[in-house]
């Protein structure tokens, strides 16, 4: 569960924010939200996908720390568990001092969120991020849900996500990684 600091910031203030701690934050509707450390299982799944994606894209196109600025009335940023950058976006970020994908940059090709336990986390990953990532133009969004033992792959079509759910030994179908030969079970067990 994340905690709020009660501090309201603009995007510019957030990008300059430093409180001298190792806390990681997301900015949601202008409010700083402290992100708790990930569970070992979630980290294992994200690393497993990173290693497998490296078979198809260079290391500079993968990030587990990139933050994405989301358009909206109030400033919001998200820090997905894994981000696959386009070649163009990777080139742009090489010249920056912070892995922040701003609104004037192209969107990433794919983002992965590994759902943490709890209703608030489910709502955030299945509802809010779904609409935010679609509005940002991210071509593919994976929701890896260890609690529900399923992987939802959302593919952007005409501005909205079309959903495919993968369970058990079903091979994941990805438009970004058509050559990927991983099953939902392999990913969820990080085998």
How would you portray this structure in words?
- This protein has 5 helices and 12 strands.
- It is an alpha+beta fold.
- It has one domain: tt1808, chain A (Alpha-Beta Complex), CATH 3.90.1570.10.
- The strands form 3 sheets. The protein has a 6-stranded mixed sheet with strand order 4-7-9-10-11-12, sandwiched between helices. Strands 1-3-2 form a 3-stranded antiparallel sheet, with no helix packed on it. It has a 3-stranded mixed sheet with strand order 6-5-8, with helices on one face.
- A hairpin with a 2-residue loop joins strand 11 (150-157) and strand 12.
- The longest helix has 18 residues, at 119-136.
Q: Tell me the domain tally.
A: 1
Gross geometry: globular
Based on helices, strands and strand pairing, what is the structural class? alpha+beta
Query: Average pLDDT across residues?
Result: 91
Number of strands: 12
Q: Give the distance, in angstroms, between the N- and C-terminal Cα atoms.
A: 27 Å
